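Posting this for the archive.
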Amino acid sequence: MIQATRDFTVQTVQTAATIAVQAGSRLYTDSASSYRALQGYVHAFVNHTKKEYARGDVYENRAECLFSLLKPYLRVFRGISKTTLPGYIGFFQFLRNFRQQNACEQAELILQAALDPTIARKAKKGELGDFCISPRKGIFQQ
């Protein structure tokens, strides 16, 4: 699951992990301090500063693969500003997280979000950062 965040603090990364990853799961990351502080997971990391990119089963190629899919998706929309970038990334996040559902199921989730007055009001103000769409939980506020 992709989870876009506003920043990379320990608290933000822990919240995103709690939403996206089941407690007790194995979690493989790089050695960034925000990842190393994660709690509730069997965590292993690779250290890129020591030119370590894989150690046995520990690697992060999936994240790099997702980024390689995001770049061409964004390239189609020429001249994206910093203010609209979160919307484009949010839709990419939605498409990736719900790719297993058919178009009708995806449209139902989009309509649910659009018709919910709380979500619509926040969207108009550009304050959707605390709302998430999860395959397990549906649409919810953090």
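Strands lie at 26-30, 42-46, 54-55, 58-59, 131-134, 138-141. The chain is about 45% helix and 15% strand.
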